[in-house]
Write a structure and sequence with these properties.
Structural class: mainly alpha
Helix content: 40-55%
Number of strands: 0
Radius of gyration: 38 Å
Order of helices and strands: HHHHHHHHH
Shape: globular
Length: about 200
């Protein structure tokens, strides 16, 4: 009797118990979670990036083919016309000189302004013993460019300018004038002193 009652109770308990939930199975994961598309997700019809621009020649510069300093035809003549127009007004020359003395102006514009100032000093007779004309000739001969004629060698140009100034402009003087100045900006500031000496602001180009 007692055994029959026990069986009835067990059967009832099993009938009333909640059904067991089926166990979920997940595919095996390898490595870190995927974040964004992988190379395999990219479409196969994407055109490759054109890198031909990396092989383009830089524009003509001092001493390079097509520059032609002193000629009415060539890149030098075109660049000179742009710089002359840019500094045709006195207030623009004044502003340019203020930044040049800090060593923070466009390197190409500064060198062209210097060359034109040297040329003007020769043509109008205020060159001292022809030393600025000789600097212009050295620039035209690419003595202050890198081997590939792409970048201006400003430390070398600054050295040539300091040889022609009444007294060399030292790095200590530069720091005294510009407390936050850097060694990289110093050669540009030296070249600015040549423009100052040739009275660029008042004489123009």
């Amino acid at each position: 009797m007692r055994a029959s009652l026990t069986c009835i109770l067990l059967a009832t308990a099993r009938a009333l118990a909640p059904a067991a939930r089926p166990r979920r199975t997940h595919p095996a994961r390898h490595g870190a979670p995927k974040d964004g598309p992988s190379y395999a997700d990219l479409p196969r019809d994407v055109e490759p990036i054109d890198t031909s621009f990396l092989e383009e020649k830089p524009p003509p510069s001092w001493g390079s083919e097509g520059w032609n300093w002193g000629s009415a035809n060539g890149a030098a003549h075109d660049k000179a016309a742009i710089v002359r127009a840019q500094f045709a007004k006195r207030h623009r020359r004044t502003s340019f000189m203020a930044w040049a003395k800090c060593g923070t102006v466009d390197a190409g514009d500064l060198k062209m302004a210097l060359a034109l100032s040297c040329q003007r000093a020769r043509n109008l007779g205020y060159d001292e013993d022809g030393k600025w004309e000789s600097l212009m000739d050295e620039m035209a001969a690419a003595q202050y460019m890198d081997a590939k004629l792409e970048f201006i060698d400003y430390p070398k140009l600054a050295g040539a300018v300091n040889e022609r100034l009444p007294s060399p402009f030292t790095f200590d003087e530069f720091l005294a004038a510009e407390s936050e100045g850097t060694l990289e900006e110093y050669p540009v500031a030296v070249v600015a002193r040549a423009l100052d000496h040739l009275d660029f602001v008042n004489n123009g180009l």
